[in-house]
Design brief:
Layout: H1 14-20, H2 25-31, E1 33-37, H3 39-46, E2 49-50, E3 53-54, E4 56-61, H4 63-68, H5 70-78, E5 82-85, H6 88-94, E6 103-108, H7 114-119, E7 124-128, H8 134-147, E8 151-155, H9 164-169, E9 179-183, H10 185-194, E10 198-202, E11 208-209, H11 210-216, E12 223-227, H12 236-239, E13 244-247, H13 259-276
Parallel strand pairs: 4-5, 7-8, 7-12, 8-9, 10-12, 10-13, 11-13
Antiparallel strand pairs: 1-6, 2-3, 4-6
């Protein structure tokens, strides 16, 4: 068979330009589309649907990537996504990574209305109240997914969910659980409280100790953890909204934990307590 040639060879083509502009938030919001890069994210996108529609609408792939990930290409085509074989410099032009992996998908927005999150009566939720770093936001989303959380809420003071760095850092978890965006923190807390969820603010200066809370058996019920800014934590007015402000104990000499690590500790503590109490759910349920 003759070698396969890419059909898109110019970064100036209309299709490439339309995809490239999704690196900017205002264009993502206007088109309600975002980029998912690499085989893991594209595979997850191809298997995801929103309201009956396939999330993946378009896929750009180098010839080499199309051959290596033939199963992903096949799945993309099976859900109706337009697949373009593109030259490597075209992929590099669309990609927001230093070393592109040869696959870039264009996906529909997939955030869930906050009302739908509440209607599902979640037992474990991560609320990103003032998280500005996209890598941290994506990593916390991944931690929430791994711990078995049933939803993530990004407030209006947090980073854009569809920032390419956030999408990459989620490593596909963005496609696994409901995420509500742009919710004012006051509304998020009030809605979750009305749904019977206890609100715990994670803060290094908290007056409650996570170990002590676990020992007292207070963490087996429905819980939402509120996480703050990477540098300055949670403002006083946000801490005041919580039922308790909890610190992760530092047993060694470390000055503090970074946001994603602290989030993982808190979310897994709740997941374990809920499982041990026989109550809310097990972290191994699908």
């Amino acid at each position: 068979m003759p070698p396969v040639s890419p059909e898109l060879i110019s970064p100036r083509s209309a299709r490439v330009s339309a995809a490239r502009r999704l690196a900017k938030r205002n264009f993502r919001g206007k088109d309600r589309l975002f980029l998912a890069e690499g085989p893991q994210a594209v595979r997850e996108a191809a298997g995801h649907r929103v309201g009956g529609e396939a999330t993946l609408v378009e896929l750009f792939a180098t010839v080499e990537a199309a051959e290596r990930y033939a199963d992903i290409i096949g799945e993309a085509r099976s859900v109706g996504a337009r697949v373009h074989l593109a030259a490597e410099d075209v992929i590099a032009d669309i990609s927001t990574t230093v070393t592109p992996q040869g696959l870039v998908g264009v996906c529909r927005f997939l955030d869930t209305p906050f009302e739908d999150v509440l209607a599902a009566r979640p037992k474990l939720v991560a609320v990103l109240a003032h998280v500005r770093d996209p890598g941290n936001a994506g990593t916390v989303l991944r931690c929430a997914d791994a711990a078995g959380a049933e939803a993530v809420v990004l407030t209006d003071a947090s980073v854009d969910l569809y920032n390419p760095k956030a999408v990459r850092a989620s490593v596909g978890s963005l496609f696994h659980l409901p995420v509500a965006v742009g919710v004012p923190v006051e509304r998020a807390v009030a809605g979750l409280k009305d749904a019977g969820v206890r609100i715990l603010a994670a803060d290094g200066a908290g007056d409650r100790d996570l170990d002590e809370e676990l020992d007292k058996g207070t963490m087996g019920g429905p819980t939402a953890w509120v996480f703050g800014n990477e540098a300055w934590g949670l403002p006083e007015e946000t801490r005041a909204l919580a039922d308790a402000v909890v610190r992760v104990p530092i047993h060694g000499k470390a000055e503090s934990l970074n946001l994603a690590t602290a989030a993982a500790v808190c979310l897994y503590a709740s997941a374990r307590a809920q499982r041990a109490s026989g109550g809310c759910r097990t972290v191994t349920e699908s």
